[in-house]
Write a structure and sequence with these properties.
Distance between the termini: 53 Å
Number of helices: 0
Low-confidence stretches: none
Order of helices and strands: EEEEEEEEEEEEEEEEEEEEE
Strand content: over 45%
Radius of gyration: 29 Å
Largest sheet: 6 strands, antiparallel
Mean pLDDT: 85
Helix content: under 10%
Amino acid sequence: EIIISARVDWIDNNNNVLKYGEKKDFCIPIKPKINRYQVGMYDDEGVLRATNGTDGQHGNLYVGQEARAKYTFTSENTWTSTNLLRGRAYEWKANSWQPSNAIGCNVSTDDANINKSAPYLMISPYENGLESFTVPDNTGNTEVINRVPFLLSSYWAKSPSHTKEETWIDIPVEKGNVAITDIQILHYLDHTRSELLGQGSTLFVGEEYAKFYTFKNYCNSPMKIEVWENTKQIEKAVFIKSEL
């Protein structure tokens, strides 16, 4: 950084200083060009579901989804700079945007080396789903648009107090909308034969059968569901593709 000192003095007609003014220092930072490039969101199976940033917006999340974040930072400098980087999600609480405390979306580093050919990726920790971020329902915000805002910040390590820069990036969110459209019963006649039973058919005590559920996803993104019957989970982690 460059420090320039300046002051205003009072002088007479002969340029004699009558009174010296207060000296003030001005800091002109010399800093790397860092781009807070992109936010990517992965589901708990490790599949990329949504991105937004310099390359545009793709995909979205749904309320209640378990996800984790990946933040991408790039540079336009050929020389390598060391930077402090931060990425964090916000959610709508008490009529204002509040930083989320979820580990799955809060990532930071104090020694990110970046140059034009070497971007820096920050990925939230993930272990058995314990560090995931549960997508909140932010429909109550004043802009009405349901989304998760992410704040990406960068600081040059040599002068962090003078080089802070921030970028807001939104990931769109929708509420889940999945319906059961059909239930079919497969009757096992013996070990090699089976038949689908139609409506009004009868099963007798001791007969073996299996049930097949058909779902329809009315959302813009694949949704993960669990199937329960009589308080017992019979199917877990089923992904249903969007039909829109």
